[in-house]
UniProtKB/TrEMBL annotation, chain A:
Primary location group: nucleus
Name of protein: DNA-directed RNA polymerase III subunit RPC3
Domain RNA polymerase III Rpc82 C -terminal: 152-371
Family according to the record: Belongs to the RNA polymerase beta chain family. Belongs to the eukaryotic RPC3/POLR3C RNA polymerase subunit family.
Organism of this sequence: Stephania yunnanensis
Protein purpose: DNA-dependent RNA polymerase catalyzes the transcription of DNA into RNA using the four ribonucleoside triphosphates as substrates. Specific core component of RNA polymerase III which synthesizes small RNAs, such as 5S rRNA and tRNAs.
UniProtKB/TrEMBL annotation, chain B:
Organism field: Stephania yunnanensis
Transcription in keyword set: yes
GO terms of biological process kind: transcription by RNA polymerase III
A Pfam family: RNA_pol_Rpc34
Name of the protein described by the UniProt record: DNA-directed RNA polymerase III subunit RPC6
Family to which this protein belongs: Belongs to the eukaryotic RPC34/RPC39 RNA polymerase subunit family.
One GO cellular component term noted in the UniProt record for this chain: RNA polymerase III complex
Length: 529, 204
């Protein structure tokens, strides 16, 4: 879902990371949709070479996907024209790099975190480049150290945190119907109307490697990357484990060389989003229900992951025994009995269904996400419009259909006049949908009916959040700019007034940083999960 | 007035229509009857401008007065707040309670003078649900639900961290509650750099 302030935020992130010119190209693509290089140069008024370089930077950092479409000209043969489409989500993921690194450092170790950091910094790299980078940092080039890097990299790939890059320029055959790149119509509208997939979606699908290839890795344990670089013959090649047959060894070594030198790797954002979604669901359930329910949910999500349903709305259906087996894998879960698990599943709203004479359970993840989203929106109602508005909004949100003013006022225990005023304010600010019904008879009556339009609210709240993130970033830049000399002060000079100013800016930075992280969590809740 | 619409009262306009008397005469008669304490005046809870009359020995119906939660045509907020607090205390004590259970508890402990009707308690409990003070759960018939039939709708207190409701990410920063957010631009008169709410928030 791309909103007006979402575009501004994306442009501001690109501008902060890559400068104004790249941001100009990115802004052009975000506002106008998919374009060809000549269109980009025309709109941005940049020299062709400069625009091309900007595109290369954006492609390197996975923010743009190129694809070719066959076009027929008048009396000319069919030719392929390259189009460039911006990947909005990947730009916003740049805000979350620290979260991704934390996940890896918690689950794996510091060395894996450093490998991932390199990939995040450079966008896409070959394994050879990754190893050279790691070696330059450690000042260590022994083949033993290289093997450690290789092993860590394989761990990252096996856990799906790193994947092969998509094809740089997939070719799309023209559709039977005339299909133009979806300029200005991005994402949800067309999806919601049930239209066929956009050309960008087709391109992304065509570019992404098959599931089998996506995480396929062949490495040479024991090979020296520096020697390989200088063209020295590689001896002692092994594919993961020692192989007995020489012929196989030679074939494998070829594949491994290609894999190390030619295959580009990038961070798999999808997996990190899945991990963050899991965390959000578990923390929501823990705060709303209890630790037991959270442990069960985590266990079921772990089981779901193995089934490769990263974006599924429900967990996989599991029998009680299978759930219990997953639950006791965690330390906290070992204290639970079957009765606890059954009660926890009821708390989570799992209704068992019978298949082949056995009871199966599955958790509705979409519902948990929706509850978390509602909590965020309701908190806005409470803080901005007060208790009465909060109650009325919750009533309309729960009901889900049109309700008449009088009924709202009766059910929420709010005086009719006050209720009308609040409903009008909420409608004016775009949180409610209103319908007027006039009954014609001897006397004319007018009824006002109100409803919560969840889709519109989601879009509006997301837009406001992007605006708030931009504001936080701007204020942070202003505060740090104002006090940059104070921040550079050596410890011994931080006394008196200067010390107080240092303390203040430190606290300001912590508060702004933590608010930014929290707000980004909320943005993910509304746009990624 | 005695003979019909005993519980709904008569609207002044209807009296005029039925008796075919002139306005001044009707007004005079009504005043005379009121002075002699034979009829009383009251207003509709949804339309306070309309005057209704009724013989003194009758009580207006809930459809006209608004019911137990209304007093003199307006919501009796103090009474509602009292019942809400009582319900919350009852649920806290019982841990999990059905509406009937709460009404029974009130009757047993004589919290209110009159008999408590579960229908009325249900209305209050629903507002507590809307206030996010209590949540609806279905009984499992086991553990804390023992004694409550399986599948019965019951209510328990919402778990709050530190006793305060969870604050959303957006509302925890000034922009989330800013009335001028739509006029805020990076270089405008209202901007995050010059924002007074931010200055106050970051005042350490």
């Amino acid at each position: 879902m791309v909103t007006q302030y979402g575009i501004k935020l994306a442009v501001s992130l690109i501008s902060a990371h890559f400068g104004e010119i790249v941001a100009k190209v990115c802004c052009c693509l975000l506002q106008k949709g998919t374009l060809t290089l000549s269109d980009i140069t025309r709109y941005t008024e940049l020299p062709s070479q400069q625009a091309k370089n900007c595109l290369l930077v954006l492609i390197q950092h996975n923010c743009v996907q190129a694809f070719a479409i066959a076009k027929e000209g008048f009396g000319m043969s069919t030719r392929a024209i390259t189009h460039y489409s911006v990947v909005y989500e990947n730009i916003l993921h740049r805000l979350r790099f620290s979260k991704f690194l934390t996940i890896v450092s918690e689950e794996l170790d510091k060395e894996c975190e450093e490998l991932l950091e390199g990939l995040l910094q450079h966008g896409r790299l070959t394994l050879e480049q990754i190893m050279l980078r790691a070696m330059s940092k450690q000042n260590e080039g022994t083949s033993v150290y290289q093997d450690v890097v290789r092993t860590n990299f394989v761990r990252l790939v096996n856990l799906r945190y790193v994947e092969r890059c998509p094809t740089s320029e997939p070719f799309l055959a023209p559709n039977s119907e005339e299909e133009a790149p979806s300029i200005g119509k991005r994402g949800p509208k067309s999806a919601k109307l049930g239209l066929s997939e956009t050309i960008e979606q087709r391109a992304m699908k065509a570019a992404s490697p098959s599931e089998a290839k996506r995480f396929l890795i062949v490495t040479d344990i024991g090979a020296n990357v520096t020697e390989a670089k200088t063209g020295a013959s590689m001896t002692n090649l092994m594919l993961g484990e020692k192989r007995k047959h020489k012929a196989l060894e030679t074939d494998g070594s070829g594949a491994a060389t290609i894999c190390e030198k030619e295959v580009l790797w990038r961070v798999n954002f999808e997996e990190f989003v899945y991990q963050l979604r899991k965390k959000v669901c578990a923390s929501n359930v823990r705060s709303r229900l209890d630790d037991g329910a959270s442990i069960i949910l985590n266990a079921m999500l772990d089981a779901t992951k193995s089934e490769e349903n990263l974006k599924s709305e429900n967990t996989v259906s599991l029998t009680m025994d299978a759930i219990f087996e997953e639950v006791i894998k965690s330390e906290d879960g070992r204290t639970m009995t079957l009765d606890h698990v059954r009660a926890g599943l009821t708390q989570l709203g799992c209704h068992p269904f019978i298949r082949d004479g056995e009871e199966y359970f599955s958790v509705d993840i979409k519902n948990i996400i929706e509850i978390a989203q509602n909590e965020e929106v309701e908190s806005i109602m409470l803080k901005r419009y007060g208790d009465d508005a909060y109650r009325m909004f919750r009533l309309l949100s729960k009901t889900g259909h049109l309700v008449e003013t009088e009924k709202i006022s009766d059910m929420a225990f709010v005086e009719r006049k006050t209720a009308c005023k609040i409903l009008y304010n909420l409608w004016k600010d775009g949180y409610l949908h209103m319908e007027k019904i006039i009954s014609h008879g001897s006397t004319q009556y007018q009824f006002l009916l109100w409803k919560v339009n969840k889709h519109l609210i989601k879009e509006q709240v997301l837009d406001e959040m992007c605006h708030a993130v931009l504001n936080l970033m701007q204020r942070m830049a202003y505060e740090l700019g104002k006090e940059h000399e104070i921040l550079k002060l050596p410890r011994e000079k931080r006394i008196g007034v200067l010390g107080k100013r240092f303390d203040r800016i430190r606290k300001v930075k912590i508060l702004l940083d933590s608010s930014l992280l929290k707000l980004d969590d909320a943005i993910m809740l509304f746009s990624c999960f | 007035m005695h003979s019909k619409q005993e519980r709904y009262g008569d609207f002044q306009g209807d009296i005029k229509k039925e008796t075919s008397l002139i306005d001044s005469l009707i007004k005079k008669s009504l005043k005379f009857l009121q002075d002699h304490n034979l009829i009383k005046e009251f207003s509709h809870y949804q339309n306070k401008g309309k005057k209704y009359f009724m013989a003194v020995e009758f009580e207006p119906s809930a459809e006209v007065t608004g019911g137990a939660w209304y007093s003199n045509g307006s919501l009796d907020m103090d009474f509602i707040a009292t019942v809400k607090v009582s319900c919350l205390m009852c649920i806290k004590q019982l841990k999990v309670a059905t509406v009937e259970g709460i009404a029974e508890f009130f009757d047993k402990t004589h919290v209110f003078h009159n008999k408590c009707f579960s229908e009325k308690i249900g209305e209050i409990v629903q507002t507590l649900v809307l206030d996010n003070e209590v949540m609806e759960v279905k009984s499992t018939g086991m553990g804390e639900y023992a004694g409550i039939p399986f599948g019965a709708l019951c209510y328990k207190l919402v778990k709050k961290q530190g006793g305060v409701p969870r604050v959303g990410a957006l509302t925890s920063i000034p922009c989330g509650v800013c009335p001028r957010i739509h006029e805020c631009t990076p270089d405008g008169i209202i901007s995050p750099v010059t924002c007074v709410y931010y200055t106050k928030w970051l005042d350490f």
